[in-house]
Design brief:
Blueprint: H1 3-8, H2 11-61, H3 64-68, H4 75-79, H5 83-108, E1 121-123, E2 130-132, H6 138-174, H7 182-188, H8 194-220, H9 242-250, H10 252-288, H11 295-307, H12 310-320, H13 326-333, H14 345-373, H15 377-385, H16 390-418, H17 421-427, H18 446-456, H19 460-484, H20 486-489
Antiparallel strand pairs: 1-2
Length: 495
């Protein structure tokens, strides 16, 4: 349908047409995401291939000192009077190798089985006393093995850098150019290479506190680490894709729970995001409307809800709407029956959505207020001259402009609501319970179910699977929606 016909049909028909178009475009967008991921993987593999090629080139073209640096890191730099640089390469390499072989290797050698010794008893032949051997700990074996592999990657990167530095010094010497001293290279770290200086510490901290735990968590999904396999008394081992097959049909209880909670999580994320966004925008438009007095006072009143910590508001709401809470007490005094606000599945879901508006709308109001003030007044003036109704002005000018500017914000809000732990857990703790669900309640999101599996039931392997699936779903939906939005397609201008 062309642009002219789009303007002639009703707003409702236009909405459903666009929705139909979005659904039709989903396979293409998914394929774009897959191709982008494939390009990233291909680029990573190609970079590794280029690294091996350069490694062979440096060995073939390197002189005696450069070839020695393949065995002794930093030797090529030391031989060309870059003593401090070469000694640092050598010292750090020795320390990393010492860690790998003196500590890490004993755990890495058991990564295939994750331990076999459960602390069996034995009789000491000399004293006749019963002795217990020190049991293996599967969790420590896996954790320290991942840490050792990370250290090995760091060592290989440092090893390659030492060879590259020695070869670079050789090339400079052969070309008759001066080889930079340690002081000169240190100054470069605060000039041309200042970005390396700034990013080195955050990169190291990210590897230690983000990459290492994430890799450990992902590997847990392929093990039998649950409440029945708690090391060191009960070791766990590798089970392959068994935990994933349980979620996708092999275990009826777990698969039903995942499907049930996934549907509710998507519904919650969409409704919570849309209601907060639209109501926040309408509230901002109402306050900013010409003729409304005391605008600063109204903004202050709504912003006060942000000043109160969210968990305080949520716990207060939970007390108010409890079965024996203040609201039901007042209803009984007025002669009405008590309402199961939080103990009935349908009512509880409605309540968490409504209460989420109370804590979320003021944020959207603040964000949209500034954007509304920047919409060109000429657009509204032209619409009034053409006789456009307030609804058409909103649907043709205000909403498209807001979506264009706040598209990335909406995606962030959707992902945040998809993983919104506070609102659900502090209000209902996932209740009411449902006997058909595996260790979950009707209002649980996937993230609160994950929390319960980890903290309350020690089903770490299943929790890890849920964590991986939540990440994949959030990432794929975010990429698809962002690539389909006007913010990504027309970054330069708004039409």
């Amino acid at each position: 349908m062309d642009e002219l016909n789009m303007h002639t049909i009703s707003p409702v028909a236009r909405f459903f047409y666009k929705l139909y178009y979005v659904i039709l475009s989903l396979p293409g967008n998914v394929w774009k995401v897959i191709k982008a991921a494939g390009r990233g993987i291909r680029g990573f593999v190609c970079s590794i291939g280029r690294g091996f090629t350069n490694y062979g080139t440096m060995f073939v073209k390197g002189d005696f000192f450069t070839k020695i640096s393949f065995v002794i890191p930093g030797f090529g730099c030391i031989a060309r009077k870059q003593f401090i640089k070469g000694l640092l390469f050598l010292l750090v390499s020795v320390l990393l190798l010492y860690f790998i072989f003196s500590f890490g290797w004993q755990y890495l050698s058991d990564i295939g089985t994750l331990g076999t010794n459960t602390g069996e008893e034995a009789i000491d032949p000399n004293t006749g006393l019963i002795m217990y051997s020190l049991p293996d700990n599967s969790m420590l074996i896996l954790l320290y093995s991942v840490m050792t592999l990370l250290v090995m990657i760091v060592f290989l990167a440092l090893y390659y850098a030492s060879i590259s530095a020695g070869y670079k010094a050789q090339v400079l010497k052969n070309e008759g150019k001066p080889i930079p001293s340690f002081i000169e290279e240190s100054k470069n770290l605060f000039n041309e290479k200042y970005h390396i200086t700034l990013l080195s510490l955050p990169t190291a901290m990210s590897a230690l506190f983000i990459i290492l735990p994430v890799v450990f968590m992902v590997l847990i999904a392929f093990t039998s680490f649950d409440r029945n396999h708690q090391p060191p008394g009960n070791l766990f081992t590798w089970v392959g894709l068994e935990n994933f097959s349980d979620v996708f049909g092999n275990n009826p209880s777990k698969s039903y729970t995942f499907q049930h909670l996934l549907q509710w999580t998507v519904i919650w994320a969409v409704v919570a995001t849309v209601t907060n966004y639209i109501l926040g925008m309408l509230l901002a438009m109402l306050i900013n409307k010409k003729g409304v007095r005391l605008k600063k006072l109204w903004r202050t009143i709504f912003v006060l809800t942000i000043a109160v910590p969210q968990f305080v508001s949520l716990l207060l709401m939970r007390r108010l709407f409890d079965d024996q809470g203040t609201v039901n007490v007042i209803l009984k005094q007025l002669g009405f029956d008590a309402v199961n606000f939080l103990s009935n599945a349908t009512n509880a879901r409605i309540m968490v959505i409504v209460i989420n508006m109370w804590v979320g709308v003021p944020y959207s109001m603040l964000i949209t207020s500034g954007i509304l003030m920047n919409i060109p007044a000429d657009l509204y003036e032209s619409a009034r001259i053409d006789g456009a109704s307030p609804f058409k002005t909103f649907s043709k000018i205000t909403l498209p402009y807001m979506l264009f500017v706040t598209g990335p914000y909406l995606i962030t809000q959707f992902v945040g609501n998809f993983n919104n732990f506070n609102v659900i857990y502090l209000l209902t703790q996932g209740e009411p319970g449902n006997v058909r669900l595996y260790q979950a309640g009707d209002t649980d999101l996937l993230v609160t179910w994950l929390y319960k599996l980890t903290v309350n039931f020690q089903d770490y392997n299943l929790a890890s699977v849920i964590g991986i699936l939540v990440f994949v779903i959030s990432a794929v939906l975010s990429l698809i929606v962002y690539n389909s939005s006007s913010s990504a397609k027309g970054e330069e201008e708004f039409q």
